Amino acid sequence: MTGVSAHDPSGSAAVPDIWAPTPAPIDGRPVDASTPVAVDDAAAARHRSGPSDFGSYFAPLDDDDAWDPPRRTTDDPGHGLAVASIVFGIFFAPLGLVLGLVAARRSSRAGYSRRLGLTGVVVAAVVIVAVVAYGVVALDYLARLSATCAQLGAGEYVDPSGRTVTCG
Fold first, then answer.
1. Which among 5, 67, 89, 135 could disulfide-bond with 17, CB atoms 3.0 to 4.6 Å apart, if both were Cys?
2. Residue 23 has pLDDT above 90, yes or no
3. Could you give the count of Cα atoms lying within 13 Å of 116 in the half-sphere of its Cβ?
4. 105 lies in which domain range?
């Protein structure tokens, strides 16, 4: 017999375990698998898993092996919208502004910080201001170019900055 069977819950009777590996040679002498092997009860108890012991087969359960406590199930209801408001604030600012306001309101009503939602509002507002400023500068340039081309007529001209301008 090579060990105690996993099917014997008491561990008192030695039942042959057909799935046990062949014993390794000791001191270079081959071991006969048909001869009974003495099983230390304390060693067998350490390797058996009882219903109250959730350790692995090789090591018993320690206090360090315990699982971390579960996370809270109630999350901030505005967190997802706040992240979406930051993303949309960069690529499509009006929608990011609206999502940020809604996220800030949902978070504050649930008792959470509305900082992330307000970050989305600020990002969207900065992008809107930058786009409007760029639009004003571009329209001003096009108005000046149009007025200059109306005075000069059709053709190619070089402006004072050295750029070639084609009117026509």
1. 5
2. no
3. 16
4. 79-167
**Residue 36 within any structural domain of the chain:** yes
- Measuring CA to CA, which residue among 105, 107, 102, 99 is closest to residue 124? 99
Q: Where are the beta strands (DSSP E) in the chain?
A: 155-158, 164-167
Across all residues in the chain, what is the average pLDDT?
Answer: 77
Please count the other Cβ atoms lying within 10 Å of the Cβ belonging to residue 18: 7
Which of these three, 32, 50, 68, is where a domain ends? Answer: 50
Asked, for residue 89, whether it belongs to a domain, the answer is yes
Number of structural domains found in the chain: 2
Report the alpha-carbon distance of residue 79 to residue 120 in Å, rounded.
Answer: 11
Cα–Cα distance, 109 to 69 (Å, whole number)? 27
- pLDDT tens for 57-98 read 665 555 555 666 666 656 788 999 999 999 999 999 999 999
Q: Tell whether 19 is covered by a domain.
A: yes
The one-character DSSP state at 64 is G
pLDDT at 49: 47
On whether the pTM is more than 0.70, the answer is no
Task: Tell whether 89 and 37 lie within a shared domain.
Answer: no
Tell the residue number behind the tokens 């402006």, with chain if given.
Answer: 159
